[in-house]
Amino acid sequence: MKTPTAVLLAIAVAVAVPSVSAGPASAAPPASACRDPEPGRPAIADLPWAQQLLDLPSAWRHSTGAGVVVAVVDSGVDADHPQLRGRVLAGRDFFLVGDLRGNFDCVSHGTAVGSIIAARSAGGVGFRGVAPGARILPVRITDRELNDQGEPIPIDPAAVARGIRYAADRGAKVINLSLSGYGDFPAVRNAVRYAQSKDALLVAAVGNRQDSGPTASFPAAYPGVLGVGAIDIAGARPSGSQVGDYVDLVAPGTRVVGATRVRGHTYHDGTSFAAPFVAGAAALVRSAWPELTAEQTAQRLMATAAPARGGRSSREYGAGVVDPYRAVTEGLSERDPLAMPEVVLPAPDPEAVRVAAWWDRTSASAKLGAGAGAVALALAAVLAWALPRGRRRRWLPGRAELPAAAPPRDEPPEEIFLFPPPPVEERTRS
Questions:
Q1: Of these residues, 74, 80, 105, 248, which one is catalytic?
Q2: What's the total number of domains in the chain?
Q3: What are the beta bridge partners of residue 250?
């Protein structure tokens, strides 16, 4: 999601917080909530490259994310999409005034993010989410990604902060933040700390502005937040995916499939859509290893990441590419590695030493003999060429033929004029 470069005035919201219902709700936007809602799209039948790369069925044998609530702080999530129906809670809208739910979407951004996390399988469709057993808590903090001129719409930091606190209070164990910005807003920073105190793991996109030079990225740069960059199908970082110490992991972020509001799918680019792959993997881990804290879950995700082009702990790729299967299955130890025993060389065998020395002497003698033989052969070849020629000349020295005399040349005078001299010089010579 392209994000804030300026701060909007906070929009008032009701103080009362609605309860979260587990059942599916009508996702039709409230009246006048969407000025120009995006239409549904056709379904994509092929299995996307990102799902092939992560080999999700292998991880699902051990965890599907069941029992974990993942908050999506975004543009809302369409609860009526066929692959999300029954997986999306009512949530809360912090963008519009009033006591509104968050399980509708006007632009499909949040729906795509939520589907990458928890979309269930559907017949004839290759796309599915990383943690289909998890539930999505939609927290709506914006309604559009771009304005009518195609420019990013700033998001109100106060709304983001309230959304994060709401998600933590509603028991979200993972909070996905597919948004980034330059500003370190105290309200957002404090909300992040509050969620962490509630043992929520926050996963944030690092942003897509690297083309404009090095830049800060919040909330990815906050301590304890997992910052996620993007890779393409070749495993390379797209030019826009930001670079910095705040990049902890990378995940697919170019031409990735996500659900659109109402129905269907489309292709997406950007770190906004790389972050939910990590959020989904975090849900798998928190379901399989419920005793782990949010911090330990983050450490596990980084420790089990697959190698990336930048090497370990690079500013471009972080710890590597998120690997859901390894994150769920590998046994990790907090103990230091055991010390390697000192290498003790065995005492040499006297007989082996004697034999080796004999072979060394023999080899040296053979090399010396071969060299002498080569010199003798060269000398014999020289003599075979020189003796017959010497006999023919009766051992008199030969004379080299002198080169033919060159024809005499007419040397030009010291000064030559290729053109007639000027009149002054003519008078001087006359």
A1: 74
A2: 1
A3: 229, 321
